[in-house]
Amino acid sequence: MSVFTKVSHDELVEFLKQYPIGGLIGFQGIGEGVENTNYFVDTHDGRWVLTLFERLNYADLPFFLGLMDHIASRGLPGAMPARTRGGDNLTTLNGKPAALVRRLVGQSVLFPTLEQCVQVGRALGDLHVATASYAGHCENGRGAAWRASTGQGLLAHVDADTRALIDDELAAQTQLDLAALPQGVIHADLFRDNVLFVDDRLTGLIDFYYACNDALAYDLAITLNDWCVEPDGVPNAERWNAMLAAYSSRRSLNAAERAAWPLVLRAAALRFWLSRLWDWTFPREGDVVHIKDPDAYRRILVHHRDNPPRGLLI
């Protein structure tokens, strides 16, 4: 969530006329995230999040917006996309695909409590169960092929230690076949800034624009690596075990997932280390751009490499 494409007051007023949501009261750019342009928008009929898609095209977006409809209609705390007077949930603003979704109540948390980790684990399990009936399909654009090509593309621009780590981890990851594990629609980016709380009550799962079809265990690993790891890259055993138990109360991992788990954790860490390292090395221009520190995920990856878990629990 950054601002790469500016939207003026007059442009937004004109854009909103196609929605039955009242007139514009105010709007503000959102600086977090790295992919799309996002604004908070207030109208006389509520509070919204406007997204202009910088990389996704019109053909890609029905999967994501349909998924959000699917999730919200099944009682999960997801944002329902707004529809125009003509019934469309995908429109155009300043030459970019655009969507408007209801802004959910709550705030993201920086330092999660044990109860919040429990609720996230339970919600992720519920999400994996609910999306089993979603008919849409989207390949993971940041899967194994992307990780390999991105890693190779960075080698000429990083120091010797980083090159050695990328090379060695990419070689190790050839032993992992995520396609052989139970599949489904995954969020793929369920970080702390994509979950909303009011106190310890989970009120929103947001930003489904990385969602795709991939291994369910991989989605769980992504979530654990963000929510349950300390700044030094070491998992917090209490939060980790609580989230795993909560997830398992909704969906249990099978024997194949358990056997692959050490490499799945590493794949999840590698994916975000490489994407952040790429953005750090080749920054994009924008009015408000937030680039996250790649070293945080390097530390997580190194810890998982040096301390392979003997089971799911820490």
Helix-strand sequence: HEEEHEEHHHEEEEHHHH
**Terminal CA distance:** 32 Å
Mean pLDDT level: 95
Strand content: 5-15%
Largest sheet: 5 strands, antiparallel
Q: Tally the helices.
A: 9
| Share in helix | 40-55%
Judged by helices, strands and strand pairing, the structural class is alpha+beta
Look up the CATH topology of the largest domain: Aminoglycoside 3'-phosphotransferase, Chain: A, domain 2
CATH architecture of the largest domain: Alpha-Beta Complex
Describe this structure in words.
The mean pLDDT is 95. A hairpin with a 2-residue loop joins strand 7 (195-198) and strand 8 (201-205). This protein starts with 8 loop residues before the first helix and ends in an 8-residue tail after the last helix. It has two domains: 9-102, Phosphorylase Kinase, domain 1 (2-Layer Sandwich); 114-306, Alpha-Beta Complex (Aminoglycoside 3'-phosphotransferase, Chain: A, domain 2). Helix 6 crosses helix 8. It is built from nine helices and nine strands. The protein has 314 residues and is of the alpha+beta class. The protein has helices at 9-16, 61-73, 114-130, 144-154, 160-173, 216-227, 237-248, 255-281, 295-306, and strands at 24-29, 37-43, 46-52, 91-93, 96-102, 183-186, 195-198, 201-205, 212-215. The chain has a five-stranded antiparallel sheet with strand order 1-2-3-5-4, with helices on one face. A two-stranded antiparallel sheet has the order 6-9. It catalyses: L-homoserine + ATP = O-phospho-L-homoserine + ADP + H(+). This is Homoserine kinase. Belongs to the pseudomonas-type ThrB family. InterPro entries: Aminoglycoside_PTrfase, Homoserine_kinase_II, Kinase-like_dom_sf, Pseudomonas-type_ThrB. Residues 28-251 form the Aminoglycoside phosphotransferase domain.
